[in-house]
Amino acid sequence: MGKLSRRVLALLLAVLAMSVIAACGDDDDDGGGGGDGGGARTGGSITVSLTSQPDYLDPAMSYTVNGWEPLSISYSRLLEYKRAEGQEGSQLIPGLAEEMPTISEDGTTYELTLRKGLKYSDGSPVKASDFEHAIKRVLNLESGGSAFYLTIEGAEEYVNAGKPEADIPGIETNDQSGKITINLTAPDATFSNVLAMPFASLVPGDTPFRILTEDPPPGVGMYHITESVPNRQFVLEKNENYPNLGPDLPPGKVDTITARIIKSAQRQTQDVISGELDFMQDPPPADMKPQVRAEYSDRYEEHTTVSTYYMFMNHRVPPFDKKEIREAVNIGLDKPALARLFAGEMTPGCSFLPPGMPGFDEALDVEECPWGNPNEPPDIERARQMIEDAGEAGTEVTVWTNNDDPSDKVGEAMADQLNRLGFNAEPRILDGGVYFQTIGNQRTRAQAGFANWFQDFPHPKNFMFLVDGASIQPTNNQNFGNVDDPVLNQGIEELNQEPEMTDEVAERWRELNVHLVEQGHVVPYGHRKLATFVSERIDFENCTRFHPVWNNDWSSFCLK
Amino acid sequence: MATEPVSEQTALQRPAAWEEEADREQVHGLGPWRLGLRRLRRNKVALAFAALFVLLLAACLAAPLWADQVAKTGPNTNHLSDTIRVDGERKNVVALDGVPIGPQYLKADGKFFLGADPNGRDIMVRLLYGGRNSLMIGITAALITTFLSILLGTIAGYFRGAADVVIRNLLDIMWSFPVIILGVALGVALALGGIDIGPISIAPDSLAIPIGIIGLVYVPYMARPVRGQVMSLREKEFVEAARAQGAGPLRIMFTEVVPNLASTILVFFTLLIANAVLLEAALSFLGAGVQPPNPSWGSMIDEGVDRIATAPHLAIVPGVMLVLTVLSLNVFGDGVRDALDPRAKVRLEH
Amino acid sequence: MLRFVVRRLLQMVLVMFAVSVLTFFIFNVIPNGDPAVRMAGRQPTETQIEQIRKEWNFDEPIYVQYVTTMEKVFTGDLRSYFTQLPVGEEILKGLPRTLSLAIGAALLWMFVAVCLGLYSAVKAGKFADRFLTIIALVGISMPVFWVGALMSYYLGFKLGWFPNGGYVELTEDPIDWAYHLILPWTALAILFIGFYSRVLRSNVLDTINEDYVRTARAKGLGERQIMVRHVLRNSLIPVVTLWGLDFGAVVGGGAILTETVFDLQGVGQYAAEAIGQLDVPPVLATTMIIAFFVVLMNAVVDILYAYLDPRIRLQ
How many of the other CB atoms lie within 10 Å of CB of C175? Predict the structure, then answer.
């Protein structure tokens, strides 16, 4: 039988040899592809990776960073944000509209005019009535974004009627003149921002009333989605019909962007290092970050995002119904410790409004934080004493969190820290897909837990609604802690009447934020950083734009 | 002496062949026990692995001792912003960029013997407590499986008829249901809300949930062979004799039939523990087993795999412990089977 | 024979029905599991949730929901609650991957096990034989996801000998396809190689002593011919049936873990992800597909056995 085993060995060797050949073949292919775009500022093709399939590849539906990064460059809206980094990128400018809207005195009527001669990526003309159609799709498809458009007159009735072709009385359009008039039932300070959200992307008037992830509709974007195989990949190609919208909304640079879904962040990082991938949407895993920071600093950068991570405490459920308990937790939570779980991608801070947001107060965030500097260890003894005095030592607390990395570890650390303060706390970890709906259901009576928010648009209300008593709901509640403070409620309602973000308005938002932090209604502990990590082929210096609203701007990528 | 499961063992898994299988089954009286023990004593390898298992079990049971006396921390205690003294030098347990400290062995008086995890928890302490959870689940689940299998197998085999048809179909359904999917589905569903039906209330993070799931899914694997054996036992002379003396079915089952199943049960029990430990690891790996922060070897491997590039020991150490435990049980179970019942037809899947 | 086949197939249908009912109900009795609330996005109004409830029939009694869902399973209209993608298409995309993994691994473990088993039988009692026995036990004692993760890291990531996960379509590039699957195949096969080689070894040892082998030997046939024509052929029959059963089990067990570790995005990984999100339609469909494989392989083995051994049919 010696022969047989030799034969096995021979076979294994043959397989191995075949694999080696295959590996070499692989390298050749990639080398060739990379050469095509060498030296060009425009043209060429790149491959990017996503850790999971975007929720939807339909502008009416998507409500995740995952989806917005590709959709923001594949569609355009009446209003847009300047394609620039930092504060400048938060500036609203006319997109497909000729000018910024004319807003009536009482703040309820918005008038815009569509630019002339616009074409969709398939060559068909853009009409003013397409805007109404786009909003109808958002409302009729029960999109996660519909709440933003319910202030439009007749929108609520349109949803309830359930008839897709019915008219929304609050939107009047004229295809000849391109005029669009929107009537609101009440003033909404954020409505200009709402018009710039991906939900309001213009799509042709005959786009069907169903979710089109597998076959995204044409748009007026820098790119257009030409292929979409859910859970595998989608392809963006440069839109030849993209109009000249001025230097603030430049066209895309590379010709083709292939986006692959690769679940393993480790593999993505390795592939970006080797050049097989050109960009990864999620940051490299905590595990590999030290190596990436040290060895690839010429193509890796971290940016602070407009976001806040906080622990919510449910004001309706003991022991957090007591003010002194909430204050004690604000004092006792170890913020620098939590920051370590983000592998250096967290800036500790105790302001609820994040940096980059009108009304943000840097002193309040760090040095003058009423609960102690968030970069320093907390006064655990004092907090412990307060909890004991309140008679809540040993009280059972469940700290809710989800299983995304690192929120699971954050929840476990929070539970441990509450134990040090004298509670008897345990974490409860749910799947990321069901987490926010579960804690947002009043029946869950979630005591405390992990929460975070990334801006939808640069307006303080987009954060403050999370602690607005008026937004408390029985299910899908976003005010997880049921914060219901009359000062906040009234302030938010008043400021919602102000369509212009003047210095005076920003100052009033600042005061509201100071009030929120001083009251200790929630425990903010920091603002997230996100990384840009690209392959060697990409011109990192000149061609990677980190936008405050859209994050990594894929349309800015170009090859060296 | 044949040392392997014999060829007919496949037949056991096929319902159609049960009856015929039962006819061929050889039944041993009580005699072979002493013989078996002697055979087992001669099998040095099996005994060595049994000793290894006892050692692992003892180590895990001594977890609180190590935690209190040596590491001076609990399995779920975070040390995110703490420092320790190593050779007179202060070191962060978790560096500012989130990289946890590596194995210190005895350099820090036994603290962080195997290093820390990203939350700054002592890996050694978690490993021992995790082993306790894994073994606890394995042994309890194996007990449940054994009990249910004997119950169902004996009823079906002894009464035949309607009871047999019902039980047989039930086992068929359970067997066709993918074990992992069933386990994960139940685990995820229960981890969300626990059980709260009338007087029974189980917390979502209770160990009772993985125990119950694992205990259930292996029942068909054991109940079927038991049923086959009972079926042939009930035709034997000593059962006939008992029946002739006027003994009721319950009495016959417990005094005549079940004792004769002892060798099968013993062998199965050992292998069941091994497989239950493996299944628990798989469930925890998919997030449906032991719920955090409580450690188990499976969940530690799961966490370790995420950090494999900077701290490969986080995945390797719990894995090695798991393999050693399962291997020792498998080798010992193998030895017991050879010693007691060389023709036993025992096999599990995972 | 026909009656037996019909009865066996009927039983198959019954089991499949029970599996579907069980899966559906596990996910519909969970507290906090109201899918309408979860589907409604971040800030829905009550009317919106009502609308979803009506549209997806969540307001109907549970048995009606079961019937309508099952109708969709058979007409292929089943859609995920959360991405609203058609479940059938997702499964069709994943199935070639799962089958590539399972079939490849099954061939690998069968082939290696036959070689090792024969070798072991010939060397029975010697060192090599004992060593193989221990190796076999080590094999069945290792969790597949652990072996997979270590292999993927050391052989794929660190040494770079193999791709670190991923999948290439067979039609796209057969060599690259195999190259990407070598590690997953090996990880999954390790589990079974040891067990199969031991079963085969004992069968060979039993068969060698059978009368017909002695007769063949007495007739003066060469040792090699005896081994292949008589011993191996007869020892293989039970192993092959076992193989059929295990193949079904692998699709529903080891494959899920292996796919997850190597990111193959097959049906198993799809199922695991859907379960995490309590997304009932894909869970139901994948469970049924996998159970179908198990039940089918069982039935095939049973029918084959009945064909070979007429006594079974009478049962």
Answer: 15
- Token pair 């219901």 is at which residue? A484
Q: Which of C196, C20, C167 is closest to C107 using CA atoms?
A: C196
Measuring CA to CA, which residue among A101, A41, A84 is closest to residue A247?
A: A84
Q: Would you state the pLDDT for residue B312?
A: 86
Higher pLDDT, A331 or B105: A331
Closest CA in chain C for residue B348: C140
- Beta partners for A300? A533
Q: Is B15 in contact with C252 (Cβ distance < 8 A)?
A: no
Tokens of A550: 């859209």
| Structure confidence at residue A313 (pLDDT) | 97
Provide, as residue numbers in chain A, all residues whose Cβ is less than 8 Å from the Cβ of B287.
403, 431
> Is the ipTM value over 0.90, yes or no?
no
Q: Where are the beta strands (DSSP E) in chain B?
A: 83-86, 89-92, 195-197, 200-202
- Note whether C150 contacts A: Cβ–Cβ < 8 A: no
Bond into A319 cis (ω within 30): yes
Residue-wise pLDDT for B158-174, tens only, equals 888 888 888 988 888 88
Confidence of residue A353 (pLDDT cuts 50, 70, 90): very high
Partnered with residue A94 across adjacent β-strands are A79
Structure tokens belonging to residue A426 = 């345990």
Chains that touch A (3 or more CB pairs under 8 A): B, C
Return the residue of B nearest to A401 by Cα: B292
Answer yes or no: are the C-beta atoms of B224 and B348 closer than 8 Å: no
Question: What SS3 class is residue B307?
Answer: coil
State whether residue A405 sits within 8 Å of chain B by CB: yes
Cis check: omega of the bond before A406, within 30 degrees of 0: yes
Whether cis (ω within 30° of 0) applies to the bond prior to B293 is: yes
Nearest to A180 by CA among A251, A130, A242, A233: A130
Number of Cβ within 10 Å of residue B38's Cβ equals 10
- Would you call A416 and B76 a contact, using CB atoms and an 8 Å cutoff? yes
Q: How many CB atoms lie within 10 A of CB C246?
A: 23
Percent of chain A residues past pLDDT 70, beyond the cut = 93
Tokens of A3: 């022969």
Q: Please tell me which residue of chain C has the smallest CA distance to A211.
A: C84
Note whether C98 contacts A: Cβ–Cβ < 8 A.
Answer: no
For residue A485, give every residue at least 6 positions away whose Cβ sits within 8 Å of its Cβ, in sequence order, or none.
A467, A469, A515, A516, A519, A521
Cis check: omega of the bond before B15, within 30 degrees of 0: no
Helix axes B313-340, B297-306, angle to 10 degrees: 150
Suggest the residue from A273, A302, A340 to mutate for an interface test with chain B (most B CBs closer than 10 A).
A340
